[in-house]
Predict the structure.
Amino acid sequence: MLKGFHDVRIVEGGYSALTDALKPSKVLKVVQGAKRGNLKMTSLVIVGLLILIVAISMTMVGKGGGNFYVVILAIANIPMHEAATTGQFILFSASVAAMIIFQKNKSVSWALAVLIGTFTALSALGGGYFSHLFSGFSLKLTFAVMLLIAGVVMIIPVSENQNISGNKHFGVINIKAAGKIYSVNLWIALPVTILTGFGSGMVGVSGGSFLVPLMVLACGVPMHTAVGTASTLIAATAFMGFTGHAIQGDFNPSWAIPLAIITVVGGILGGKLSLKTGPKYLKKLFAFTNWLAALFMIINALHTKGII
């Protein structure tokens, strides 16, 4: 029977091991494992596509998009703590990629980043401390209202506050961006910055949706400079958030690293598209994404409350 099969050897226990491996229960486990692997790969592809779209659109207008990342990952059945960690990691990756693109175009004001970053961080600490005085429902509605207002003010026509002479006055500083000098009135910018940081800290967000309006309206800088500078602030915030989560052991590289590569691509594309898009259209896109996020937050709040 074995004629012509000179290399075939009967290993001790081979037949019993073979019959054991071919038992229906064992075969079913193998098939189920293969299906789970294929399902995970399919989910990763779908999630990656959605996150790429978010990364491009959010980077174009200087917004983080971390809330969208976390929602997408949660829908894909990623545990919430892991989703938050992955969201912060890919947000950091996209923001750094965008920051490099904007920096090459000299559209990042480091002086403005330090000024706004310092005061928003300190005021956000206060907002987070006092957030326990409000219910989750009221915080979500507050966040939605802030998003709506930020979207509305962005479509209000405003002229760039360029100061070619570079004259300095008490409470007014000059910053250089893209080869031009802009005067920033601290009497207006700082109170708005503190309120923005406090509100962001109170509702538990990085403030990416409010940084650009703050810089355009209160500081008078161009839209492209505001978007580029916001990318640096978002990257710093996301890195700190990721570090805190990762210390707790919630980092899953099997999802985070592939998605981070995707968001790097999205950040580069978003940054380049932003620089090629006129400020008028960027402001409209910013307003639209803010209103979309506000609508989502309102629906989520009402659903949590059991109203809808």
In short: The beta strands are 172-177, 180-185. The first strand starts at residue 172 and ends at 177.
